Amino acid sequence: MQEKQATIYLDNASTTSLDSKVLEAMLPYFKEQFGNASSIHALGQTARVAVEKAREQVALFLNCKESEVYFTPSATFSDNLAILGVVRVAQKKGIKPHIITNVIEHPAVLEPIKHLEKTGQIEATFLPVYQEGIVKVEDVERAIKSNTCLVSIMQANNEIGTIQPIDEIAQVIGNFRGPKKYPLFHTDAVQAANYLDLNVEKLGVDLLTLSGHKIYGPKGIGVLYVKQSTLLEPIVFGGHQEAGLIPGTENVANIVGLGKAIELVKSSKLKVQSLRKLRDKLIDGILKEIPQTFLNGSREQRLANNANISFKGVEGEALLILLDQAGIAVSTGSACSSGSLEASHVLMALDCGKERAHSAVRFSLSKNTIEKEIDYVLNVLPKMVEHLRKISGFKV
Amino acid sequence: MGKITKPDGVGNTQNLKCGDVMKIYLKVSKKQGKEVISEIKFETMGCGHAIASTDMICELALGKTLEQAKKIKFSDVALKLGQMPPQKLHCSSLAQYALQQAIFDYEKKHLKPKATPKKN
């Protein structure tokens, strides 16, 4: 429909492009510096130094000790380790552990919890998020029981970008916990890392998940911050790496890349205000120019780069394809192409109906997004929606 | 694409799971004693595959006799469209169902007692 131009990439919640400074930092560890970080010889020690430098960079970012930073093969692994690892230790107390989470978590959190629940190993509570897409602190307070071993609430949502009141939830958990060990508090901060304060002391979390490829770093690398490692058991077994908690030879290049990427987040945070302005221009432009469009999730408590919008009478995936043909990359709320035909569990949780869930498109901006790109989207989008509404017979 | 104002038959199907809605409108005329689809239009709210599938089945059905059109299978649509990912085949089968419904609707209105729709 539109003439093709260079890709306008507005799918940064799926993955970000690799920062060239990150790539530069990683390159030597693919070839010249190929050593195994566990080897004693000089080549091995060079790799070890690089890994420990990255650990220092992460610790600085999270305001924690270096010994509390664990590198994992992915954020999904981090989430699984946090949940399964905590449950393994808690089960030894002889009581059935209880976990609190919420309905819009990433599958990397929801699925291990559902698995544990289904196999009768734990009790689980899935808190609602209401129309705004935000967990209520008093709901957490009410759900905590004497056998609650873990609360897992994401810092910001991947689809609608809503920000959860992590520090307030931590306070409630802390009040209940007192001098005891449980409940522990885990947060998946994968989407939040670019935009929010991840100071673990301020947040009051015991476990925190990070990912490399959402912060202009490489794919296939994650972090789990663990405040007290004795409350966690490994979920895979092997060598002594990462204090035996995550065995397997360290992915040195990726670890170096993640360290560099996290160091760079600080400078990109300075640009968050202008990013938010661009994002607001996109949201306001769409809501104003295209009738029957709706923003999904809270407008205020929302990541600066996220716009998730439903276009009534149009299926998100059809719009995605037209946008793609015009060189604009976005993603949808419908998981249609992933095999399941169900609408996104996140949008369905907002209680705004199936149709609105199926008609949602997520635009997620990056530090590299420029105003010209947003202008282009605002220029071509109305015609595409009009076209698809003609096909669907939807009258505005 | 679009609507026929005074259609002879309308098929309206939807997949509750994926949310797709398809409508097919028919005009039927007699040609050498046979009932032929002389005009066909559609409205689809769905993904690209759903839109393409309804578009294609309309193209395949235009000019065919009703008996021929009834025999158009979702696999014919998928074949014509080229590489359909397996999880999208249901879009084509929804289009097949919409066309058959439109034909049954026509036959029902034009009093053909033998033409009760088959339950699948």
Please explain how this structure is put together.
The complex is a heterodimer of chains A (396) and B (120). Chain A has helices at 20-26, 42-62, 75-91, 107-118, 137-143, 166-177, 200-203, 252-269, 272-289, 316-325, 345-349, 354-358, 371-392, and strands spanning 8-9, 69-72, 98-102, 123-127, 148-152, 184-188, 207-211, 222-226, 293-295, 306-311, 328-329, 331-332, 360-364. With 396 residues, chain A is of the alpha/beta class. Chain A folds into two domains: 8-17 and 271-392, Aspartate Aminotransferase, domain 1, CATH 3.90.1150; 33-267, Aspartate Aminotransferase, domain 2 (3-Layer(aba) Sandwich). In chain A, helix 3 packs parallel to helix 4, helix 9 (272-289) packs parallel to helix 13 and helix 10 crosses helix 13. Chain A is globular, with a radius of gyration of 22 Å. The two termini of chain A are 22 Å apart. Chain B is an alpha+beta fold. In chain B, a hairpin with a 2-residue loop joins strand 2 (21-31) and strand 3. The longest helix of chain B is centred in the last third of the chain and has 21 residues, at 89-109. The radius of gyration of chain B is 14 Å and the shape is globular. Chain B starts with 8 loop residues before the first strand and ends in an 11-residue tail after the last helix. The mean pLDDT of chain B is 89. The interface between A and B is medium-sized, with 23 and 22 residues. Chain A: Keywords: Iron, Iron-sulfur, Metal-binding, Pyridoxal phosphate, Transferase. Chain A: This is cysteine desulfurase.
